[in-house]
Design a protein that fits this description.
The protein is an all-beta fold and about 120 residues long. The chain has no helices and eleven strands. The strands form two sheets. Strands 2, 4, 5, 6, 9, 10 and 11 form a seven-stranded mixed β-sheet that branches. The chain has a four-stranded antiparallel β-sheet with strand order 1-3-8-7, with no helix packed on it. A hairpin with a 2-residue loop joins strand 5 and strand 6.
Amino acid sequence: QVQLEESGGGLVQPGESLRLSCSASLYIGSGYCLAWFRHVPGQAREGIAVLDNGYPTYKLSVKDRFTIFRDDAGNTLFLQMNSLQPGDTAKYYCAARIDRGGGCFLLDHQYTAWGQGTQVTVSS
């Protein structure tokens, strides 16, 4: 079972950028669905970006601002977040599961490996 660990969160002002990293204990290249979720207390966990065989899909609210990508070595997943807004404040989690076909989706119950999360706070 792959283990994941996020880093890179912090406090930023509106309009600024952050890059989150997710280090994996195993190779998470081809053959894995990789995703970023976020959670605000009192709300449901929200899937925001998924990487399916190298192809990204985004939740509409972050599309054109966030970019999900993986390093060439296949051990680290990233989330580049630009033009951050107060509504992006949340704890961010990376998640992974073996891709058994059928596509990769932002459905949290499908993912078997999760990091511990990293807090992102956007405030002036």
